[in-house]
Amino acid sequence: MGLVGDIGTAAAICTTVAFVPQVLKIRRQGGADLSYAMLAVYFIGVALWFAYGWMLHAAAMIWANAATDLLVALAIILKATYTPRAASEQRRASTRAAESEFTGG
Fold first, then answer.
1. Residues 27-33: what's their mean pLDDT?
2. The whole model's pTM is what?
3. Which of 5, 49, 82, 98 could form a disulfide with 1 if both were Cys (CB 3.0 to 4.6 A apart)?
4. Phi and psi based region of residue 94 (left: phi greater than 0; alpha: psi -120 to 50; beta: remaining)
């Protein structure tokens, strides 16, 4: 592969793996602090890098950007659908307290 290929592969691994902690954070805490606009622009940018890599037949660029786009899509899905356990428990506690107050219990 040579030095250029090794550098490209190392860069691809670093930039792809760098997004994993963000997805894990969204899974644990929710994605309220991330905007859909940022995620959408990031997704489009990575998709364009994928297309560029495809046109150049650059394998590292292709697989890294495909994997990153999957991670960004997962982040968008989690942000849209996932409620962190702490937030849902807090909501349930608030509901129970309101019900208790209403019923006089």
1. 86
2. 0.73
3. 5
4. alpha
